[in-house]
Fold:
Amino acid sequence: MLTEQDLTILIKQQVGKAAADRIKTGMIVGLGTGSTTAYMIQFLGERLQSGQLRDIKGIPTSFQSTVLAKKYGVPLTTLDEVEQIDIAIDGADEVDPQKNLIKGGGAAHTREKIVDCLAEQFIVVVDSSKLVKKLGSTFLLPIEVIPMAMNPIIRAIEKLGGQPEIRMGIKKAGPVVTDQGNLVIDVKFDSIDNPGELEKTLNNIPGVLENGLFVGVADIILVGEIQNGQPIVKEIS
Ligand code: 5RP
Structure:
């Protein structure tokens, strides 16, 4: 009998594999961050090792995806070396019916936004629990901030009606420090009615580096779920 945890892993593997299967020889690939994308990087590595794919270069969005790419033998490059990204594959914390996202559960949303926005095609890999009617209903909105601006930013967010909390480390005393050496504030908004407007307003606060709203960026959402005891993948495009 499979546990809830086994089923979650099966779904993530299936959706990660479905995304890796869309990568073609010669592509520059944006490598997202998170537990679902980790399977995509693993399957991409396996396709390369088996000779099914050749001449792939990955652009990592975090320290985590850099480490995984090296582990599974995916060659890496940088934005200084390439002119375009063919495909980016990344996870999300929430997806609304317009394919707008909240990202940043892994505190990697700043680099993720750079890479995902540059891609010719951006594919999001999630399980069906991430689909919401309205952004902000299940997940706090992550905002990466420069440490010396933390207090003024908190006050500015409160003026906008948000309830901010500094993200704290797990198995690490003190706050989470991002790959850029910054801090993350997670914000509860009662209702995010206009994600595009809020994305701009937040990024306009001095000291905010980037927030986790990804508006109008995703092309395809691959959604994994269990049907009749089997993991399946649906596409929203
Ligand atoms: C990291 C992210 C992740 O893509 C997001 O948190 C989803 O992760 P997971 O696939 O583990 O649920 O935005 O900053």
